[in-house]
Design brief:
This protein is of the alpha/beta class. Helices cover about 45% and strands about 15% of the residues. Bound molecules: pentane-1,5-diamine (N2P).
Length: about 375
């Protein structure tokens, strides 16, 4: 063996174990309020992998980080409509299913639906299912509207006269352009996934018509505010509203929060565990996903954050009051009326962001 060959061989010998053995670190980027209190600590204890855990509260933030590249994250949790485009853009690593031994726990019907956004279920593992509806303070809304017969309709938010009566007790809207505009289009009887500029202009006009009654646009603040009685109506994610409702009940100050899926139908979405293509620790990311796929682990998360999970054997570990709650595990007729958000082209996404900024700032 000549010297340079020997050197090269030596380098290989040293490099090989480093390649096989990833450092025991995992960088997770998840939605806020979307995991049980002890999930991460339990995973660390079981695997010896140290987790760095960051949170966000809207899809657009994660999308921008993935597009910019080198996010440093090993796990992200995009909703299906965003995942679909991220896959097309080559931003997501195909899963190594041989490492996901618990994958068979997932409901085949959910996997089938999910495959519309993630072909062959190749890139994402459905994590939680949620709807976007209205959370409200029962007593305050009844008083402001002068009736105990709450309209079961999106009129509560989108009818300018109705929502103006709630302005004083406080109305909050998600800071989520794609989702809110989709729901506004649906309310107008238009396709929630439309990319027509005229349709978007109508949705903008609708949002402007209710703007004087909106206290703020934010995708996480409403949990505390609804629970404390600081606001009385929120357009928000199902589980978040139930967290607020639970907190209000625990506090025992007489605040009662309910969740309404309006009769016109609500948006339904799946969020997926996915690995960015440039993730520094893909091995550990697979271990994490496989851990979340354990029935008791994911059932604990559902019991803590009140979102339905698609793991069939987990159901027996889900609390009775959680699985019998139609706002968390919706019945078939609610699902039939629900609509699914689809991916937008990058061009439309840009237009949407500009429109949203105009709605929020008036410029
Ligand atoms: C958690 C919000 C998760 C649902 N705060 C978003 N799809």
């Amino acid at each position: 063996m000549n010297r340079s060959l020997a050197l090269a061989f030596g380098t290989l010998m040293v490099a090989a174990p480093a390649l096989a053995q990833e450092e025991p670190v995992l960088n997770v980027y998840n939605w806020s309020d979307y995991i049980a209190e002890d999930t991460i600590a339990n995973f660390e204890a079981e695997t010896g992998i140290k987790v760095n855990y960051d949170v966000y509260d809207n899809n657009e933030i994660v999308d921008a980080k993935l597009l910019a590249g080198n996010s440093g994250y090993d796990i992200v949790v995009p909703s299906g409509n965003f995942l679909e485009r991220q896959i097309q853009a080559g931003l997501i690593l195909p899963l190594d299913k041989s490492k996901l031994t618990n994958l068979g726990n997932l409901d085949p019907a959910v996997m089938d639906t999910a495959s519309a956004q993630d072909p062959d279920n190749a890139h994402g593992v459905p994590y939680m299912i949620n709807t976007i509806g209205l959370g409200y303070n029962v007593a305050e809304v009844a008083e402001a509207l002068g009736t105990d017969e709450l309209p079961q309709s999106w009129d509560l938010l989108f009818d300018p006269e109705t929502v103006s009566k709630l302005a004083d007790c406080g109305v909050a809207v998600l800071d989520s352009p794609s989702e809110v505009m989709g729901i506004a289009l649906h309310y107008l009887g238009l396709d929630p996934n439309s990319e027509s500029e005229e349709d978007l202009a109508q949705a903008e006009e609708l949002m402007n018509s209710i703007k004087p009654s909106i206290r703020y646009y934010n995708s996480s603040q409403y949990i505390d505010d609804l629970g404390n009685g600081e606001i009385c109506l929120a357009l928000g994610y199902s589980g978040d509203i139930f967290i607020a409702s639970d907190a209000a009940e625990q506090a025992g100050q007489g605040v009662e929060v309910n969740y309404l899926i309006p009769e016109e139908g609500a948006a339904t979405l799946f969020d997926f565990l996915a690995i960015p293509v440039d993730a520094p620790h893909p091995e550990n990311a697979h271990k994490f996903i496989n851990y979340i796929l354990e029935p008791e682990v994911v059932a604990d998360i559902t019991n803590y954050v009140f979102y339905a999970n698609p793991n069939l054997p987990a159901l027996e570990f889900v609390d009775e009051e959680v699985k019998s709650n139609p706002g968390i595990y919706p019945p078939a007729e609610t699902i039939e009326k629900a609509f699914v958000m689809q991916a937008h082209t990058p061009e439309f996404e840009e237009l949407l962001t500009r429109t949203w900024t105009r709605i929020k700032t008036g410029q």
